[in-house]
């Protein structure tokens, strides 16, 4: 990554972190884009060059995950795609990756509460999921069956993560949730492999 790209990335991260801090303090709808720009010490037009929509200030944190499933499949060409995706999701659960919902760090819980508690953020998040689905479909082959499979995989991972977050946000210890989360993931991928045999065999 060149100097210009690194500088741009730092700008993304700095402005996003400033915005998220304000949103957590006062609520997403109570903070204007102009207030975020002022706090980040940039102009409003500059902010919109980096973040086309207010919601993107928050969802920038998950943007890097859009091609994650596709990258997993592409990195293991000799492994059945669903096996690679199952292994990756279980590894992320074991690591407590926030994207799996199995993380009780106060900042992570607050961030997820902000996203799931704000309708416009939920709606915008689905656009990210659509792009993730499209990337995975392309990695699987790009045909109709690949698109159907990608939709089911992305939906399964979303539902698993939401269930984990729901329990963690309700106060259950991560160590208590983890065995159920692993069992649910194994069950979900087992169902996917049973119904999507083309992507479960070498």
UniProtKB/TrEMBL annotation:
> What SUPFAM superfamilies has UniProt attached to this entry?
Homeodomain-like (SSF46689)
A Pfam family annotated for this chain is TetR_N
| InterPro entries, per the entry | DNA-bd_HTH_TetR-type_CS, Homeodomain-like_sf, HTH-type_TetR-like_transc_reg, HTH_TetR
Where the record annotates domain HTH tetR-type, the positions are 9-69
Record GO terms (molecular function):
DNA-binding transcription factor activity; transcription cis-regulatory region binding
Alphabetical keyword list: DNA-binding, Transcription, Transcription regulation
Which Gene3D superfamilies does the annotation name? Homeodomain-like (1.10.10.60), Tetracycline Repressor, domain 2 (1.10.357.10)
Keyword set includes Disulfide bond = no
- DNA-binding region boundaries: 32-51
Q: State the Gene Ontology BP annotations.
A: negative regulation of DNA-templated transcription
Q: What is this protein called?
A: TetR family transcriptional regulator
Q: Which organism is it from?
A: Streptomyces lasalocidi
């Amino acid at each position: 990554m060149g100097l210009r790209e690194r500088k741009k990335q730092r700008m993304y991260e700095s402005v996003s972190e400033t915005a998220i801090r304000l949103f957590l303090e006062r609520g997403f709808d109570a903070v204007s884009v102009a207030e975020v720009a002022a706090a980040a010490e940039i102009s409003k037009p500059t902010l919109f060059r980096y973040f086309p929509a207010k919601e993107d200030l928050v969802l920038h944190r998950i943007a890097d995950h859009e091609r994650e499933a596709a990258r997993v499949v592409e990195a293991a060409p000799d492994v059945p795609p669903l096996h690679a995706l199952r292994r990756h999701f279980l590894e992320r659960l074991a690591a407590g990756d926030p994207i799996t919902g199995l993380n009780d760090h106060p900042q992570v819980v607050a961030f997820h509460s902000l996203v799931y508690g704000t309708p416009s953020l939920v709606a915008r998040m689905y656009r990210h999921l659509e792009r993730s689905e499209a990337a995975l479909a392309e990695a699987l082959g790009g045909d109709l069956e690949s698109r159907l499979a990608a939709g089911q995989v992305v939906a399964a991972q979303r539902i698993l993560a939401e269930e984990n977050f729901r329990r963690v946000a309700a106060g259950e210890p991560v160590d208590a949730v983890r065995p159920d989360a692993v069992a649910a993931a194994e069950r979900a991928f087992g169902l996917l492999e049973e119904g999507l045999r083309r992507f479960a065999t070498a």
